[in-house]
Design goal:
Elongation Factor Tu (Ef-tu), domain 3; conserved putative lor/sdh protein from methanococcus maripaludis s2 fold; 6-stranded antiparallel β-barrel; 22 strands; 4 helices; OB fold (Dihydrolipoamide Acetyltransferase, E2P); elongated; alpha+beta
Length: about 350
């Protein structure tokens, strides 16, 4: 009979152990393990938008040459694509009227010089007679005045001769710098006006890629952006440059703005008039972007899960999406720099849930 108290004691101990184990299991079920997630820290980054335009190659410095006076075109030796040198004669006007005006001015100069010689001799005689007391002061002053008038007439006649020489020179049109002719104007025999384009010359000191850009893209800061330019028929032929000029006024027909890109050492294959494609990355300013996997919905609006690093608990927050694609989402409002957003595991979360960031200690 002494074994009964021992059995009772063993049974009581086993029951206490089983009860303690059940309580621990119940405690584990009441406090679930933190859910593993992946996160990212919100930062503002410069967003670049790739832009592509089709344009053409033009000379960096291209000028239209024209006569300063009007007249009948005697000759026009310009040919499209010809190379010209500085001082080379390009075209010529009939110069009969200008030569006649020159001869008339020269004759007037000779007559004025004769009057000056006569007035100077008379002045010298009056000066000598006045010194000897044989003439009056009034006669001497009249001789002085006559000499000055004659000298003024000679000066005016010389100016007329110089102007007539210039007019004759204006009947010849010469290149002011070496280059290539990219456009020609009227043919010989036509009557042209002063300032009418006779030829357009592309000077040999640089090449531009010229593009017509829509107005909505010109509003941004394009000046100085780096551009990659390729030939449309051979993408291997490429050059780099920077936007150096944006037109201040839109084209009245297309309503686009001309943008000129100064090319650095363009290859010889990029000839004038060649069609090219320009590629540039325009900045949209600093923006907040998060992976597309971070996006969820709350109250029928886009939302993200935000982690509180002090408690390792998450909360859901509505955000405004500016733009999104398969890889990332651009957030315009709702997030601040430095906040932590859950990027993986968002489907099984609930507000206030404790999480464990993968790669950190539990």
């Amino acid at each position: 009979m002494p074994t009964r108290p021992l059995n009772t004691t063993l049974l009581a101990g086993l029951a206490a152990l089983l009860l303690s184990a059940c309580e621990r299991d119940a405690a584990k079920e009441a406090t679930p393990a933190p859910r593993p997630v992946r996160t990212t820290t919100v930062e503002k980054r410069e967003q670049l938008t790739p832009l592509t335009f089709t344009g053409r190659i033009e000379a960096e410095d291209e000028v239209s040459v024209a006569f300063r006076i009007g007249g009948r075109l005697l000759s026009n030796d310009t040919r499209l694509g010809d190379r010209v040198e500085a001082g080379q004669l390009l075209a010529q006007l009939e110069s009969q009227n200008e030569l006649s005006a020159l001869r008339q001015a020269q004759a007037a100069l000779v007559a004025a010089q004769g009057q000056l010689t006569q007035a100077s001799n008379h002045y010298q005689r009056q000066q000598t007679l006045l010194a000897q007391g044989w003439t009056t002061r009034a006669n001497f002053e009249a001789a002085t005045q006559a000499q000055q008038t004659a000298q003024s007439q000679v000066d005016a006649a010389q100016a007329q001769v110089s102007s007539a020489h210039d007019q004759v020179g204006f009947t010849e049109l010469r290149a002011d710098a070496p280059g290539k002719i990219t456009e020609t104007g009227p043919a010989a025999g036509e009557v042209v006006q002063a300032g009418q384009m006779i030829a357009r010359i592309a000077r040999q000191d640089g090449r531009d890629a010229v593009f017509d850009v829509p107005a909505q893209l010109v509003r941004g800061a394009l000046a100085g952006l780096r551009v990659t330019v390729n030939l449309t028929n051979d993408s291997e032929v490429a050059a780099h440059g920077r936007i150096r000029q944006v037109a201040a006024q839109a084209n009245p027909v297309t309503r686009t703005f001309e943008v000129r890109v100064g090319l650095t050492d363009p290859p010889t294959a990029m000839r004038l008039g060649a069609t090219v494609v320009g590629r540039v990355e325009a900045s949209n300013g600093p923006m907040i972007d998060v992976p597309a996997t971070a996006l969820t919905r709350m109250n029928q609006q886009p939302a993200v899960w935000v982690l509180d690093p002090s408690t390792n608990r998450v909360s859901v927050r509505n955000v405004e999406v500016q733009r999104f694609d398969q890889a990332q989402v651009i957030i315009s409002q709702g997030l601040d720099t430095g906040e932590i957003v859950v990027t993986a595991g968002v489907q099984a979360l609930h507000p206030g849930q404790k999480v464990r960031v993968l790669g950190s200690e539990p």
